[in-house]
Specification:
single chain, Immunoglobulin-like
């Protein structure tokens, strides 16, 4: 009897542990107005300022940054972008992220300067904005860069502040599982 009870408890424990895992599977949606299929991560990647900047911003509301890859499929014509949203705190003022050379992605194998792009006008964005007063922009993302992001242990976003300084933002969790799932689900592994 006791062994049977132990099995039931262990089974429910395992089921609860599996249910509590966040899903990393990308989400596809069809924009009915344009006929474009949009694929994004289930949730955007959250980034916080580096510890050095965070120490300077003590007793101030922290600036958060969010980003995520986006795939636009226009009847088999695929293009990619990196969605970036900055929810400013009351510390150092972030510069205009639409300006040239405003953002740089830092990966294990070196920096990637991000270039602003125009995107299709869709009924809704692939990711939810956190702050209505924040800045949101899309940047060019090649398949090669997306693969590099998925393979990289280091993933930081350098953002130019209004005073000319650079603020480094790093993910709050390891992003490789989500980005690898995204790359694999899109068939971009290069195998």
């Amino acid at each position: 009897m006791r062994l049977r009870h132990l099995r039931v408890v262990l089974t429910f424990g395992l089921l609860a542990a599996c249910a509590g895992r966040p899903t990393v599977k990308p989400v596809e949606s069809l924009d009915e107005r344009t006929g474009i299929t949009v694929t994004a991560l289930n949730q955007s990647i959250e980034l916080l300022p580096s510890t050095q900047f965070a120490a300077l911003a003590e007793n101030k509301r922290t600036t958060f940054t969010y980003m995520g890859p986006v795939e636009w499929n226009r009847s088999g014509d695929f293009s990619y972008g990196l969605w970036v949203h900055i929810a400013p705190g009351n510390g150092a003022q972030i510069g205009d992220i639409h300006a040239a050379d405003a953002l740089t992605l830092q990966l294990d194998d070196g920096p990637v300067a991000l270039t602003l792009i125009e995107t299709p006008k869709l009924g809704r964005e692939p990711y939810k904005r956190v702050a209505s007063w924040g800045q949101t922009a899309y940047f060019n993302l090649t398949v090669a860069t997306l693969r590099r992001m998925a393979a990289s242990r280091k993933l930081e976003l350098d953002v130019h502040a209004a005073d000319g300084s650079v603020i480094a933002f790093a993910p709050t969790a390891d992003t490789r599982a989500a980005l690898n799932e995204y790359v694999q689900s899109r068939g971009l592994t290069g195998d």
